[in-house]
Structure formats: C-alpha cells, structure tokens
Amino acid sequence: MAVIKFNELDFRAVNMDGVRATGKAVVIGEAQGWEGYTLRVFRIAPGGFTPHHRHDWEHVNYIVQGKGTLTIKDQTTEVAEKDFAFVPPNAQHQFRNPYAEDFVFVCIVPNRGA
Fold it and tell me: Which of 6, 45, 71, 109 could form a disulfide with 113 if both were Cys (CB 3.0 to 4.6 A apart)?
C-alpha cells in the first residue's frame, strides 16, 4: 500500500514549449503497483497554463484547489475545487489559470501518457 501525503508532493517544473508556471508531481503509477495508469498532480500558478495540445489518450481530472479553465476543442469551461473533468482522446485541450491563487488538479492517464 502506498500513502502519499499531499503536502509532501515533489512538484517539478514542466519545461516544454507552450507551458508557463506549471509544476507536476507523479504520485501513483507502476512504481506503486498500479499497472496501466498514472496519477499525477499539476499545480498551475496564477497566469500559468499547460500546452494547447492533443494526443491519443484520455485524461480523468479532479480539481483539488483553486479554479481555472479547461478548454476542450473550442469550448472553455471554468472548473473549480471539487469539480471533475474528462478530456477525451484526440481532443485539443488546455488548462489555464487566469486567477490570483494556485490551481491544483489530479490527472489520471494511461501510462503511455505519463
């Protein structure tokens, strides 16, 4: 059994084109015995965003703290603490934080997307 404390997560900067002020912690995956999927936590600082991109795997998301926006294809929706979101495979998408506090969410993906 793996128990990971939220306040002990090791957020690492996401350094790639199209990303600003975003950190990622890989929390549960193959190393903890979960074959096939990985649970990650993202923290987007005010003014930050993930890349506007697409790929062939889905995301399952849960908002832990703050609020932000999720754009899927051409629809942008505000998401906030305790909301859930599903990003289908091959859908152009992006998370953004236009607000004054950190935006933190869980993201579960198949291992090919980790």
Answer: 109
